[in-house]
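so the lab meeting is tmrw and i was supposed to have these ready like two days ago... anyway. pasting both below. for each one the top line is the aa sequence and the line under it is the structure tokens. i havent really looked at them closely yet so no promises
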Amino acid sequence: MDKTGLLVGLDIGTTSVKTVVADTSSNELRVIGAASSPTKGMRHGKIVDIDQTASSISSALKKVAEKTNSKIYRVVTGIPVGMLRLDSASGLINIGEKGQEVGDSDVKRVLASAISSATKEGQEPIAFLPNKFLIDGKTDVDDPRKMIAHSLEVHGILLTAPAADLHNIRKAIERAGYQNNFFVPTPLAIASVALDEGERTFGSIILDLGGGTTTATVIHENKIKYATIDLEGGNDITKDISVVLNTSKKEAEKIKQEFGYADPELTSPDNQFPVNVVGENAPQMVDEEYLSEIINARLEQILARIGKGLDAHDAFRLPGGVTITGGTSVLQGTDDIVKDVYDVKARIFQPNQIGLRNPLYAASFGVVKYAYDLADIDYLVNSVIYNTPVTVSSSVEEKTPEKMKFFKRVQSNSEIAGKEDYNKDTVASKQKNNNARDNKKNKKGLGDFFKKFFD
């Protein structure tokens, strides 16, 4: 069945493609399905083989289309923090010498001026977040339309990404048989669903434990204040298991998912499982504590490196603590390790909608929510950046204003941050077993070593 009003969020990760479909035809955001598919053709968050990535995208979208009995034509795609660049941007235009009413075309002209002036060579804009509009250089307003003005000025933050990377993403989506409607910044998308208003205002850290990369984004006063990336993730944990246990990567990934713990204190050496070892005729028995120590060593190394930049920016003093997302966070005890290494409160976020209750879908669900909440001004921004009327309906024909109601977002003047704080370091589950932790609280591990080292 061809359903109008569909909004499809796409998260292209190094290890898996995730997609969430929501129905907006009833003027509400109603998630109706989600699916994921293993990714090929990606390395450390970037496309290295367009055809393989296209096949992965096609697999995920076909799977969710069948699950929801829907036809999908267009998607909205998240851009990870590792690709983002933030720059201050401003534009100024004349409205009329005698003053006249500001219309959509005037707003688009001033937005185009700001976006054009701030876009750096080799970069391509994906979003512009207005801080304020100024009428005649003095009156600060959120939306200048229908106001009388001689001149119109806008100040905000321009988010761009490398043009080559965006080209590869678009091309992969097109070869999969779909069209990318527009891009959204993944960290702001995740913040829209993973953090409450207080956490976004007073400050929190979003820690995304992906397969190919690990990223941390600081959200404070509804702004991106700082972001950092580490080029290791869940794939590297799998490689460690493969090397140490002398088994295939496929086998290593399987036992990681079935028997893996991030925290050795939650395990017992008495619990064992068979591992198919290369060159051996019979499986070898390995205990879960030993497996957990392999996992924990790599995880704490990643957290320690990420933690340097966070500590330098006083991020651990923010009251919101750390909110953990990403597929690797499903390992039991991940939140405890983050608490121990960073000495802050930490929690794992997973969407609570039926079918999405996995941290894996935090980004794709966030993309859908962020796109649904777009305000009128954001719609004008996108029409400037992408040079076409922007719609997220699954039906190409349905583009009437009535079908655009899922673009409404209450605009905030403090949704972004200055470029200096960000660009300086841009490159840069199950229930816990509390009794087991209490019985082993004196046990020394790599977490203690790293905490002492960075203290």
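ok protien two:
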Amino acid sequence: MSGRMAASNQVALVGYAHSAVERHSDRPLGVLALETARAAIADAGLTPAQVDGVVTSALFPTAGSHAVEDGVSSVTASWLAERLGASPRYVSGFQGIGQIPGMVGIAVNAVAAGAADYVVVYRALHNPRGSYHANPMRAAAGSQQWTAPQGFFGPLQMIALPYNEYLARYGATREAMAAVLVEARKNGSRIPWSFWNGKPLTAQEYLAAPMLADPVCRYDCDIPVSGVAAFVLTSAERAADLPHRPVYVAGYSNATPATRRLPLHWPLDDIMSVGAENARRLWESAGVSPADVDLPQVYDGFSPFVWFWLEVLGFCPVGEAHRFVADGGIDSDDPKALPALSGGGALGNGRMHGIPQMLECYLQLSGRAGERQRERASIGVACHSSPHYGGAVVYSAERY
């Protein structure tokens, strides 16, 4: 794509629902997904019979050996469509790392092309019993033969590599990273559905946490949870007749990672160079610049992602994010600061992937954030995964 997205501001979010976020749910994930999707449809002022599109990303994000069973530990679009009480003519799923931008992009294109009028998009996350990322291998084949026997297995070691690079290259410290965790947990503690509701974190508690893969400690990782969030999308014209103020999808972009690396080899230069190109495409597709955004919601499944996203999106210079955050640059209680984690993110809510970022953009731009409603919320950006492997969506409170 070159230039502004043809469907920019032509498709809108018109309703949502969010399940409880629990460490482990006593009910199958499919039941939670079905209830949440139906609640989102009702919130949009619609009935299941009016829904003719279902879109998701059903990836089960674990490096362990847990079984993937549709309707139990994962919920595909076809599984939900068969049980929703609708007769959808468009059912699709995104396959890739940037799950939230990917599924939003599919839904936007479906509505803009006339393939569906009302589309439910959802993300359903399951937390299995036992160790989430336990390595069950007795033999390593393929690319993992070069990494797993040496202990380089799973996402913790993967993110420790560029995090160490950043610390060494720019003189950053774990004490500076404490500001990220304090901000995320402060905001998450204020949100009723958050796993960390009522549980803020101090810098001292963060620095005292057990080390998992140096310099990644326990609190640098979002906690695995079970939960579902769903949204309804339709055309801007249809949205005008529905109960809630619509929030328009202005543009989106997904990254194309460097292919010369092993899957877990994420050097800092790859993250930043591919991420910068990802951000360039994002702003071009939405027809805006970083200066236009007053509600950035950066992804934080691992805390270093906050620094990386702030820099590739252009909110602070490369190598300066650690100082920017430590100096209060993202303090959501400061009206002059950039509220990059005002929705709590993954660190403040639990491992709901990019849902906290997407939901905060919807709630704030639609004026539905309640006591947390910000005075200024017109253009938001919601990020997901690493800048070089994920993507982002720009949302707008007004059509432009």
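from a quick look at the 2nd one: The longest helix spans residues 268-286. The chain has a mean pLDDT of 94. will dig more after coffe
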